[in-house]
Write a structure and sequence with these properties.
Layout: H1 2-10, E1 25-26, E2 50-62, E3 65-76, E4 87-91, E5 96-107, E6 110-113, E7 122-125, E8 134-135, E9 139-143, E10 153-162, E11 172-175, E12 183-193, E13 199-203, E14 212-214, E15 217-227, E16 245-249, H2 254-268, H3 276-287, H4 291-305, E17 307-308, E18 310-311, H5 323-329, E19 331-332, H6 334-347, E20 351-357, E21 377-384, E22 387-391, E23 410-414, E24 423-425, E25 435-442, E26 451-460, H7 462-471, H8 476-490, E27 494-504, E28 509-518, E29 526-528, E30 552-553, E31 559-567, E32 576-577, E33 583-587, E34 590-599, E35 602-611, E36 615-616, H9 621-632, E37 637-639, H10 648-656, H11 662-673, H12 678-691, H13 696-709, H14 712-725, H15 730-742, H16 746-759, H17 764-776, H18 780-793, H19 798-810, H20 814-827, H21 831-841, H22 846-859, H23 864-876, H24 880-893, H25 898-910, H26 914-924, H27 930-944, H28 948-961, H29 966-978, H30 982-995, H31 1000-1012, H32 1016-1029, H33 1033-1040
Parallel strand pairs: 1-5, 2-12, 8-18, 17-19, 25-31
Antiparallel strand pairs: 2-3, 3-10, 4-9, 5-6, 5-10, 7-9, 11-16, 12-15, 13-16, 14-15, 20-21, 20-23, 21-22, 23-24, 25-26, 26-28, 27-28, 29-37, 30-36, 31-35, 32-37, 33-34, 34-35
Helix pairs in contact: 4-6, 5-6, 11-12, 11-13, 12-13, 13-14, 13-15, 14-15, 15-16, 15-17, 16-17, 17-18, 18-19, 19-20, 19-21, 21-22, 22-23, 23-24, 24-25, 25-26, 25-27, 27-28, 27-29, 28-29, 29-30, 29-31, 30-31, 31-32
């Protein structure tokens, strides 16, 4: 409340200076003051501590003297409002005369004259800015009226009369700054002799000022009722925060200010002919002939060897101390330091001049009237060669001229004897990051185990100087703790081991370092990289009011860079850069760039944010808001390979600590799943849902795991739980799609994955599996459209191109498939791509198939997939010895793959080595999944056309235990087809298709059986239906040696 009274009283009272008195006078108001009646309180009842009924400001401007009269009347509303009775009047005794005119309390019809009752003011000197090395010499007259009560109206009036010979008769004043409080009635009046060329400017919606002349005086006057506080437009540059204000000055131009002030600096900036300061100058000159080096030395002397103390007392307000005095004191204010630096530079024949600025609100200075009081700082503008350097003696650490930038003061006024005009002070966009962070995480042992991490942040420019100064306040353990707290706030997922901080004075860089171990969050099978988000949830909305169309300020100059490197586990497949990573966009006045790569299992990303302009126009803000919000949603992630296998380190870390939260149990379950440990994962999901029954992620992921484990009823129960929490949760739809897949309901799978994509647009798994479901429905166009969407999102991903090529090939679109395979191989020469192309070339292009397998072999001769393909190729050529050799090598690489063991047994059988074949077949039956092995035995014997009776026994054995398993029936039907038992084959195939209507091998096999029986209509219908689902099915059957009649 005390600040409220001071704010209303001091406005305009301390803008001029002269010798006066060290205690206030008590006297009536000057005769020229017009008395005003205090209006009634018309404000609506509220909880405000006080109501300001009247704020009256009357100003008399004369050549060489200014008097500011102020009257305030306020009503005490609440007990808290009694604090407003603590009344203070500040003034500078060297320049001002303070006169108290009245202090009364109005209580109903009673008027209590506080001063007449004998109360007096207490005068104190309060240097309120000593902590910032400022001496202003201001005195304060304070009084607390006795007996003040709620409901009283406090009415006081005072004037400050000022005269400053430095101003040489000039007059200037700021008035009517009614911005922070509600005022019942505000009145302002200015008067001046008509011989004084006063100019006026009003802003903030104040009435237009039209001076009225009478009796040798000119003046303006107006009254406003119900003045409301001004809320500056949100996000606007600082010039829009000035609010209501009247400026009055007799300076005709900015050049007049230069003419007034320049001689003061020229006189003070004289180097003595001899003495200590002259010796310092000679030392610098002798040390180097280079002008830049000399300037750096002079600046270092002023910054480092002369302490900063702001001297605002007496003549120190405007007049600088001379260079020799400042040097002898070893302290000085901005004026004294500027003069000292000017003296040194001019002695070295370096062009330099003082420039006045406003360090706080220089923005918009060009629109204001010329007034000395608008400036609060001065610095040096030096010119060496063709380059201008801004030198500020009050700063520290400016050891290199090349690192200096234009200060962001908006405008400056060079102090020249004639012709001075404002100059723009706007730096160019930063060309070096001001904050530069590098992160390195070594996750080669596993994604969820503790990963060694190092982080380094380099701070440059003024921020580095401030940070260095802050760190200097801490030593030893306190410094270490402060750094640890900083890093903990920045990267909470890293357990800190060591921290450090060093300053490089030659580069002007403060370096902060931290090492530790990171616990990375791979939820959702991806990791959002650290500190690489761009944009933000911008809100450029504004309420209607004054300056609604003001521009929006942009942090300027501003440049930040973050680089992160993540070393990824090898042998796990291909990690991927997320689709939304790449960004190169200018919006909201900032250039956002982000780029990431993965090479040799090292993920590297760089993000920069660099402001290009200091503000953007209001009409550009709506589009910028949309763009910035959209950018913020585009997180940069590194995505796990499909089928990532949990490493030993991952598993050990997961088992080392028992989770304590539902989310932690879900995370550990994912680790177990990465190792195929479904039972352990399901136990953790059980604990997760028990700890937090609202954890939709736990319910949905348990449903997925239950589908994979064959617990379809349990999965459906989890769907219901998940839907009750969030009926639009994407993972639940994915689980439904998976269940539809295994239950051979492709139409339902399409619907489920479509819903998942509405929840999570662009989800890879959903797009892939919806494409597969479309393919099973024979909807070729939609299947390829989904894969095309993935290609468009990842145009440089060879595996996505290959997957689309596979669909195209399966749908019989071999030309476009070949194009995609070629594009993929041009991006990366990968054996898996060659093998996919070889598989689809098949009998259509045997030479191409052979060349692809050879190319794959040259790249990865020990890869199990490559060895299997080589074995198949050799077996097809009748070279059984070579084929068995390849299969043997493949078995060594993938001993759990029962299909390879059976393929080798088939080769042995075809070569006549039945003993070896029987050994492999018997070994296959000992594997963990016996049913899978027996079905593979039945199928491979049948497709190879050997041991058909044995194959029939294999299938019969399976169907005795699982008579409705479609895959077993499909194998059985093909055996019967090859045996010529056509009716039985048709019957078995029909049973299969009743379970899975979209199984192309059963459709095609039944079509051949119908053809061999002469039923052309049914045959052609089944053959066409099969090829609509998978066009390559005909080539597969040709490879088996079972074909329909020519032309069918």
């Amino acid at each position: 409340m005390k600040k409220l009274v001071l704010a209303l009283v001091v406005t305009g009272a301390l803008t001029a200076r002269a010798h006066a008195a060290d205690k206030p006078e008590i006297a009536p108001a000057p005769a020229w003051v017009k008395p005003l009646a205090i209006p009634a309180d018309r404000a609506k009842p509220d909880d405000a501590p006080v109501h300001i009924l009247l704020s009256d400001q009357q100003i008399s401007l004369d050549r060489g003297r200014q008097t500011v009269f102020t009257e305030i009347a306020l009503k005490i509303q609440t007990p808290q409002g009694l604090a407003a009775g603590n009344i203070s009047f500040p003034w500078r005794p060297e320049t001002d005369t303070l006169t108290i005119h009245k202090l009364v309390i109005r209580r109903g019809d009673q008027i209590i004259d506080v001063l007449a009752a004998g109360q007096t003011f207490t005068v104190v000197r309060r240097e309120q800015n000593l902590e910032s090395a400022t001496l202003d010499g201001v005195l304060t007259a304070n009084i607390q009226p006795e007996g003040l009560q709620v409901g009283d109206v406090v009415d006081f009036a005072a004037s400050v009369s000022s005269s400053d010979p430095t101003m040489q008769g000039h007059a200037e004043q700021i008035a009517a700054a009614w911005n922070g409080f509600t005022i019942g009635r505000a009145h302002v009046r200015l008067r001046w002799p008509t011989t004084l060329p006063i100019r006026l400017r009003q802003v903030g919606g104040l009435p237009a000022l039209k001076p009225v002349k009478a009796g040798g005086l000119a003046g303006v006057e107006f009254t406003i009722d119900d003045v409301q506080p001004i809320q500056p437009p949100k996000g606007a540059p600082v010039r829009f925060a000035l609010g209501r204000m009247i400026e009055a000055t007799d300076f005709g131009s900015w050049a007049d200010l230069g003419t007034l002030m320049a001689p003061l600096y020229d006189k003070a900036a004289t180097l003595p002919a001899q003495g200590l300061l002259r010796a310092e100058s000679e030392r610098i000159i002798k040390a180097s002939p280079d002008a830049k080096t000399r300037t750096e030395a002079a600046l270092a002397l002023v910054q480092d060897r002369v302490r900063y103390v702001a001297l605002m007392m007496g003549m120190g307000g405007y007049v600088p101390a001379d260079a020799a005095l400042t040097w002898s004191r070893r302290f000085g204010d901005c004026k004294g330091k500027t003069v000292l630096l000017l003296a040194l530079l001019r002695a070295m024949d370096i062009e330099a001049e003082p420039v006045m600025v406003n360090a706080l609100v220089g923005d918009g200075m060009d629109a204001r009237l010329p007034m000395v009081g608008l400036f609060n700082h001065v610095l040096v503008r030096a010119t060496i060669g063709a380059r201008v350097y801004w030198l500020d003696g009050t700063r520290t650490g400016d050891t290199s001229l090349d690192r200096l930038t234009v200060p962001t003061f908006g405008w400056g006024l060079p102090l020249r004897a004639s012709g001075a005009t404002l100059i723009r002070m706007l730096p160019a966009p930063a060309d070096t990051p001001i904050r530069d962070t590098t992160i390195r995480i070594d996750a080669t042992s596993g994604l969820t185990s503790a990963a060694p991490a190092t982080v380094e942040t380099i701070v440059r420019g003024d921020d580095s100087i401030q940070l260095r100064a802050n760190l200097a306040n801490f030593v030893g353990v306190a410094r270490d703790n402060a750094l640890r707290e900083y890093w903990k706030n920045q990267y909470s997922f890293i357990e800190i081991k060591a921290v450090g901080a060093t300053y490089d004075a030659t580069k002007g860089e403060q370096r902060l370092t931290m090492t530790g171990t990171a616990k990375m969050d791979w939820a959702g099978d991806n990791y959002e990289t650290d500190g690489t988000r761009v944009g933000y949830r911008a809100d450029f909305s504004r309420d209607a009011g004054t300056d609604k169309n003001a521009p929006f300020a942009v942090p300027y100059p501003y440049f930040e860079r973050t680089r992160e490197t993540i070393l990824l586990p090898r042998g796990q497949g291909d990690f991927r850069v997320s689709t939304a990573t790449e960004i190169d966009q200018i919006t909201g006045g900032v250039h956002y760039k982000r780029h990431a790569t993965i090479q040799n299992n090292v993920y590297a990303i760089e993000k920069t944010e660099r402001s290009t302009v200091p503000e953007i126009p209001a009409d550009a803000a709506p589009a910028a808001q949309i763009a910035l919000r959209a950018l913020f949603e585009k997180a940069a992630r590194v995505e796990k390979p499909m089928g990532y296998a949990t490493t030993d380190a991952d598993l050990a870390a997961a088992r080392a600590d028992e989770p304590t939260t539902s989310g932690d149990y879900v995370s550990r379950a994912l680790v177990f799943l990465g190792r195929g440990m479904r039972a352990e994962a399901l136990k953790d999901y059980d604990k997760a849902t028990a700890l937090d029954p609202t954890n939709v992620y736990a319910w949905a992921n348990r449903a997925i795991t239950r589908v994979q484990a064959g617990d379809y009823a349990g999965a459906r129960a989890d769907f219901a739980k998940s839907d009750a929490i969030n009926p639009r949760f994407g993972q639940t739809f994915i689980a439904r799609g998976m269940l539809a897949d295994v239950e051979n309901r492709p139409a339902d799978a399409v619907a489920a994955y479509t819903s998942a994509l509405k929840s999570e647009p662009g989800d890879d798994y959903s797009l892939d599996h919806r494409a597969a479901a479309y393919a099973r429905l024979g909807d070729v166009d939609h299947a390829i459209a989904d894969m095309t969407a993935r290609v468009e999102a990842l145009p440089d991903n060879p595996y996505v191109l290959t997957r689309r090529a596979n669909y195209e090939a399966e749908m019989g679109r071999s030309t476009v498939a070949e194009s995609d395979y070629a594009r993929a191989l041009a991006i990366k020469s990968d054996p898996t791509i060659y093998l996919d192309r070889a598989r689809h070339r098949g009998v259509r292009d045997p030479k191409g198939r052979q060349a692809d397998i050879a190319a794959a072999f040259s790249l990865e001769p020990a890869d199990a997939g490559v060895l299997i393909a080589s074995g198949e190729l050799a077996a097809g050529d009748g070279d059984f010895a070579k084929a068995s050799k390849f299969y043997t090598q493949a078995i060594a690489r993938a001993p759990e793959n029962v299909a390879i063991l059976i393929a080798r047994g088939i080769v042995f059988a075809r070569s006549g080595d039945m003993a070896a074949a029987d050994r492999d077949f018997a070994a296959a039956r000992t594997r963990k999944n016996v049913a899978e092995a027996i079905n593979e035995l039945c199928w491979q014997k049948a497709t190879s056309g050997i041991m058909l009776e044995s194959a029939l026994k294999d299938c019969t054995e399976l169907l005795a235990k699982a008579p409705n398993e479609a895959s077993y029936l499909d194998s059985d039907g093909f055996v019967l087809l090859r045996l010529g038992r056509l009716d039985e084959a048709i019957s078995v195939y029909s049973r299969t298709l009743a379970l899975n209507p979209y199984l192309p091998t059963s459709l095609f096999g039944r079509g051949i059986a119908y053809a061999q029986k002469g039923d052309e209509v049914r045959a052609k219908a089944d053959l066409a239906a099969a090829e609509r689902i998978t066009a390559s099915v005909r080539a597969d059957f040709v490879g088996y040696g079972v074909t329909p009649p020519e032309g069918w």
